[in-house]
Sequence to fold (390 residues):
Amino acid sequence: MQKKSTSTTSIIHSDYLAPEGFAALPTAIHHASTVLFKDVAAMRARRWQDKSAYTYGLHGTPTSFTLEARLAEIEQGNYCLLAPSGLAAITLVDMALLQSGDDVLIPENVYNPSRELGDWLARSFGISVRYYDPMIGAGIAELILANTKLIWTEAPGSVSMEVPDIPAICTAAHARGVLVAIDNTWSGGIAFSAFEHGVDIIMQALTKYQSGGSDVLMGAVITKDLALNMRLQAAHMRLGFGVGMDDVYLVLRNLPTLKLRFDAHDASARKIATWLQTRPEINQVLHPALADCPGHAIWKRDFTGAGGLFSVLFDVSYSEAQTDQFVNQLKLFKIGFSWGGAHSLCVPYRIQQMRSNWPHQGILVRFNIGLEDTGDLIADIEQALTSICE
Ligand SMILES: *Cc1c(COP(=O)(O)O)cnc(C)c1O
Fold:
């Protein structure tokens, strides 16, 4: 018996230490819930907020600290917090910065689950949540109330593709001491310098371009200001928003190709969008780099790229049954939410239900242009369009 318990212990405890000095290009995957301290004094002296050392797995390991630092660099910020999904990152911002009695402004065309969250904050947490026309620009000044604490923006809206005037919104907000957050997912953090254009908080769904593999859910909240980061960090801890280090590694692994992939999506999407403009079945192509898109001039002024996501409006003569058939007929384009991966995707949306004064006609279909051959994707769309005309 004695022998057996000794052997169990020796399986758990080992004096072996791998030699130091290992150098390689990938970031190591450090898994941990428990983080060790050398003695009680070191444990007592450690502050979980201080990211120059380690406290507990929830607050991060070298692996997650590395991804946070690299994302902050990409967005030209100073601090970054990872969340278990893009939506969790949005929740983190709202929970950190809003309390009962506060007011928040959210664009009407916002990523829909963010609106679900807003409705819940209004219903159950005593927060005033108002939705505004994303094309309001400087006019947002008239909506700011004494208790307005936060203005959300999304550039562009990821379904309607409307490009808001971020600098105008930020100027109006800052004149009244209101913080501005942006969902910067569409630009991948590389086609729009959100901090340079005035925002205080950048939210990213790393699920999209940063992961690039359609296999990870993760989000990030990036800031420049220490005090603001500390407010977010406190909420991050209270909400218990830990991330898995294997997932963090998947994002780190694909980060070096972020710009190459983004530019490839961008080039292919622009070719396909331009081709779609010539099609009689399509009434309007909502691609920020094309003149037909609401806010195109703002995109041209503020953005350096466009990525792979855009929408089209079918000619009014097409019924929803026909546009549904179009989507069903696509072979290379799969039907599914999300974007930023190698596979092309297509989803129809009922835009009139998302936007109160949607001024355009025709059924909206959104494309995520993947990394397949552009000619093959055009041929696929062409055969699906032909099928609904028959
Ligand atoms: C996907 C997405 C999110 C949410 O990201 P998840 O990781 O899927 O929760 C938020 N905003 C935009 C614009 C997105 O496209």
